[in-house]
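We store sequence, tokenised fold; for instance:
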Amino acid sequence: MTQPLLANKVAVVTGAAQGIGQEIARALHDQGARVVLADLDGDAAQRAAAEIDGGKGNCSGVACDVTSEEQVRALVEGAVGEHGHLDVFVNNAGITRDKSLRKMSVADFDAVITVHLRGTWLGVREASAVMREQKSGSIVNISSLSGKSGNPGQTNYSAAKAGIVGLTKAAAKEVAHHNIRINAIQPGLIRTPMTAAMSPEVFAEREAAVPMKRAGEPAEVAGAVVFLASELSSYITGSVIEVGGGRYM
């Protein structure tokens, strides 16, 4: 029997209680990793972990505010303390506060920038500090095609997701000589609770703009994460993979 791609690996996924984050955690677990699911809603993270793992002890859920330096550090230290090492860290946590320029408040802008950019930066910094000592590790940052093309009503979100690409490339250059790889994924239109809130007309319009003529599934984003987390991508760093059905190519 072929060994799973991530056998004996330890992974942390932020924003993992639902949607794309939960599917990423599921895919990493299915490939043999022990996974820590982190989310602002710790109870939901624990429920997601139990659902994925069936109570076997290979998944755990914890509360974490990714904007807090202390909590992100505690998340990493807790994973290492429980499992002995950290091999994969996925910065997935995010929020939206969509409004037009005229209606968007400074608080709306700052909230989105802080969760996405500061949260990702803290995850990269804390995870890479551990991986530097191990001389190995893979960090995957979840950006968005909104950061490539820009979406009306998302000046905050598009700016944050574009910033994640720059952060990814700069950090990848800093730590590559320690055998740490840092890459980003840009999902397009994916069926999640967030896109389910769109009106059917808007969703259909956006789906029609995708060359593959369909929305993606969270598992399809998770598959790209598994690839970047595994040794299949051992010579890939500072890269951005678009998972968008060909949109904006």
Remarks:
- The chain has a mean pLDDT of 96.
- The radius of gyration is 17 Å.
- The chain has one domain: 10-241.
